[in-house]
Amino acid sequence: MPVPRTSALPAWRPPEWSAKRRRNERPPFATRRSVYWMFRLIEMAVQAMPYPAATGFARAVGWFVHAVDRKHRRTAHKNLRLSFPGWTATRLRETVRRTYEHCALIVVELFFVRRLIRRETLDRYATFVGWENTQRALARGKGLIIVVGHLGNWEFAGVASVLRGLRATSVARPLDNRWVNDHLVRARAWTGQEVVYKKDALRRLVTRLREGRVVVIPSDQNVRSGGVFVPFFGRTASTVKAAALLCEKYGTPLVVASKHRTGRSRFHHVIEFSEPVVASDFPDDGRRQEHITAHFTRKLEESIRRHPAQYLWMHKRWKTRPAGETLSTT
């Protein structure tokens, strides 16, 4: 059976920068184009390697970036220290280093996806747990919301789930480099996965839910305005409420997907889907969206606690604070 393909890439939208920031910080055209071709050359070089050698290359790259990237290394260390206050300094440092290694492995695995992954080979690389939860939710006829976080290889999990049979539309933030962005979107879209950018997402997501499809919404990143503050690793975090809004307004079931790699040199991931919930499972007290958001955030935290070295700790997850509170007081 041939793999379905999507038609066009999403219309390009730059990231959410102010006009002033775009003028001051956006690299010139020649630099952006050079970065793209450097990325493609590295991709082709890695694809020419045997997979075990490519994973060794990824670990070396992760080690190097960890050594030179002081800014994000400090952010990751601070986030881990506050999230796991009982950890020793040695464990904190080691987990930060392994997080960089994990991120490099994500990219290398993405380079190999089209070469290795087919419907007939999928079981070698992915184990699905709770797949029946997605099918039971879809049987309601109202579509399905899957909430994901930046744990494990979220890119591969999307490809694998579509190959397994989900008709999915995923929300993404475009990368700063248009050519790298489009190349990576094509790497997602070759299976039939639809990608929409978050500024354009809501209307498209509603349409897809009405068609009985799956929408995938990353919901573990800081929201500067309009978010819902819910507990995350013992501190309130501003969290996107799109999944909760759609769940409440359209009666769509919601599940949480977690992912993790099962070995350092083995291309194999476990993709797990939680029991579905619907809006009526939560109190109708005027704060239902907050309750739904707290539910899926708690599920994401439970998964991250099991595999902390496979989470994107470099992100400033707790940057936005409630009115009257500063980050230093949390």
Polypeptide structure, described:
This protein has 330 residues and is α/β, with parallel strands linked by helices. The protein has one domain. Helix content is 48%, strand content 14%. The chain contains 12 helices and 9 strands. The protein has helices at 19-25, 29-47, 51-68, 70-83, 89-116, 122-125, 131-138, 154-164, 178-189, 201-210, 242-250, 288-306; strands at 126-129, 144-148, 168-172, 194-197, 214-218, 228-232, 235-239, 254-261, 269-273. The strands form 2 sheets. It has a 7-stranded mixed β-sheet, with helices on both faces. Strands 6-7 form a two-stranded antiparallel ribbon. Helix 4 (70-83) packs across helix 5 (89-116) and helix 5 (89-116) packs parallel to helix 8 (154-164).
Count of helical regions: 12
- What distance lies between the first and last C-alpha atoms, to the nearest angstrom? 53 Å
Shape: globular
Percent of residues in β-strands:
5-15%
Rg from C-alpha positions?
A: 20 Å
Provide mean pLDDT, rounded: 90
The assigned structural class equals alpha/beta
- Sheet with the most strands: spatial strand order: 1-9-8-2-5-3-4
